């Protein structure tokens, strides 16, 4: 079956399928279209035709790195660097020698073993969150996504390059964070603009250049300070590993402009994704007291009255991790990634795709397939992602961290950080859903629950 026969909503002249997508809730629209048109459908967008795929048999082909590659497009790649500047891992092409070099240097510092070294820094920031919640007056609310973002931003900046944003001591974001957020909002806005519109928005471009210069300058300063420390520097963080690491294949290290791009990429890729995960996990626990109790019992058993959990304790929080994995099944905070075939290909033994066709793997639909997860696939239940079950699951059926060589390098980091933080919160606080919060999902580059506010009480038994 050729491209022309792939089903999909009827496209209007010029506008394509723009009216079929609710820009305020694109995930819901894409889920609805998947239900209506099936495992593969075609959408026409201002930037060209795109296939949206969520059928397990089709995804099985798309994850084959020998035949398919990551397509760098949309969102972040709108923020093209100036000529001669580097892009980070996330937005580089697989063929870029600097992607390969950085990937090879960074694999070890992002491995599970490396998390042992970062755990004390993760605890440092999680303690600041706990302190803040401990000191609230009765009746005060917490804004969950806002506090989770403080946590994840400060954690990646501290573990990444020894910098403290001190977000828990501020009401308004650090200027670096403000500039970064503005850049991300601009990237998002550009995905729905025609190229001519983008070129006409001169003021937006000027702001973008200013913000980029500001980010670059701060990171350059941090790098220069570290270099100035010479042998005395503690190079155990990600920055240190990048400054001293050498790629075995080429025998070369990373140039400073690339290290800078990686630092900024870690901040961008590493904070909203993980804060969205924690926010959704808290939401699901709040609405499912049975699972909340079980997670709390585990936190009590393994953490007890420990003030500063160790790497090994965090590893033993298996049910808490399961809760996070189930959260990523239903609410993958990076809900899609893009692929293309190197050559003409047939997928699922049926659909013929010409070389370089743009394909979007849409994980919220893949992750809700009842033939894989059972009749209650739409429901939150951490049994879905129990370790025994996941061990038997073909890997292409659960892809919250993408796939193959271009999968998320920060996966262990995110899970370690989120398990630790959720464990510490359960160990100390009772969560109160005083507003009977109704889930409203906000999607920018990533996904999070909007306006999610609760009250927290120090558990009477741990006072
Ligand atoms: C790539 C998801 C946390 C850094 C990816 C991809 C996904 C993803 C789906 C693949 C994107 C694609 O194929 O286009 C997530 C989720 C996270 C998370 C759901 C949290 C729950 C992190 C953290 C970091 C990070 C904490 C860094 C500290 C990266 C980088 C890449 C990436 C650098 C690009 C890797 C490459 O192409 O070589 N992530 N991520 N992510 N992620 Fe994450």
TrEMBL record:
Residues the record lists as binding heme: 408
Family recorded in the similarity comment: In the N-terminal section; belongs to the cytochrome P450 family.
UniProt-recorded name of the protein: Bifunctional cytochrome P450/NADPH--P450 reductase
Lineage: Bacteria, Bacillati, Actinomycetota, Actinomycetes, Geodermatophilales
């Amino acid at each position: 079956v050729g491209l022309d026969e792939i089903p999909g909503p009827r496209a209007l002249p010029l506008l394509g399928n723009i009216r079929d997508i609710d820009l305020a809730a694109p995930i819901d629209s894409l889920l609805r279209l998947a239900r209506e048109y099936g495992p593969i459908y075609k959408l026409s967008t201002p930037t060209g035709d795109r296939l949206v795929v969520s059928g397990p048999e089709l995804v099985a082909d798309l994850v084959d790195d020998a035949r398919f590659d990551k397509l760098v497009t949309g969102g972040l790649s709108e923020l093209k660097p100036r000529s001669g500047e580097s892009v980070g891992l996330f937005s580089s092409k697989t063929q870029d020698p600097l992607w390969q070099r950085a990937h090879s240097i960074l694999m070890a510092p992002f491995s599970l073993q490396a998390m042992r070294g970062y755990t004390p820094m993760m605890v440092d920031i999680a303690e600041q969150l706990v302190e803040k919640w401990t000191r609230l007056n009765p009746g005060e609310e917490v804004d969950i996504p806002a506090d989770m973002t403080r946590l994840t931003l400060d954690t990646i900046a501290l573990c990444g390059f020894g910098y403290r944003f001190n977000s828990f001591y501020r009401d308004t974001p650090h200027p670096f964070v403000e500039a970064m957020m503005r850049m991300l909002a601009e990237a998002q806005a550009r995905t729905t603009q025609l190229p001519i519109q983008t070129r006409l928005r001169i003021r937006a471009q000027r702001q973008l250049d200013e913000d980029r210069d500001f980010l670059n300058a701060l990171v350059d300063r941090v790098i220069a300070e570290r270099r100035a420390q010479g042998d005395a520097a503690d190079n155990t963080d990600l920055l240190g590993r990048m400054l001293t690491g050498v790629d075995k294949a080429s025998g070369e290290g990373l140039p400073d402009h690339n290290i800078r791009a990686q630092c900024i990429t870690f901040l961008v890729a590493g904070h909203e994704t993980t804060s969205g995960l924690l926010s959704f996990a808290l939401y699901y626990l709040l609405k499912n007291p049975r699972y909340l109790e079980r997670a709390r019992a585990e936190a009590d058993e393994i953490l007890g009255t420990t003030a500063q959990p160790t790497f090994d304790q965090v590893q033993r929080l298996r049910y808490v991790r399961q809760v996070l994995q189930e959260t990523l099944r239903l609410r993958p905070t990076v809900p899609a990634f893009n692929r293309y075939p190197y050559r003409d290909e047939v997928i699922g033994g049926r659909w013929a795709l010409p070389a370089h066709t743009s394909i979007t793997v849409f994980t919220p639909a893949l992750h809700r397939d009842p033939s894989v997860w059972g009749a209650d696939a739409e429901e939150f239940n951490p049994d879905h992602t129990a370790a025994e079950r996941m061990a038997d699951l073909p890997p292409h059926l659960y892809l919250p961290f993408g796939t193959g060589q271009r999968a998320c390098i920060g996966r262990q980091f995110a899970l370690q950080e989120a398990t630790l933080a959720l464990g510490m919160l359960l160990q100390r606080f009772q969560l109160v859903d005083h507003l009977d919060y109704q889930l409203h999902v906000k999607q920018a580059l990533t996904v999070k629950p909007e306006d999610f506010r609760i009250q927290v009480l120090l558990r009477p038994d741990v006072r």
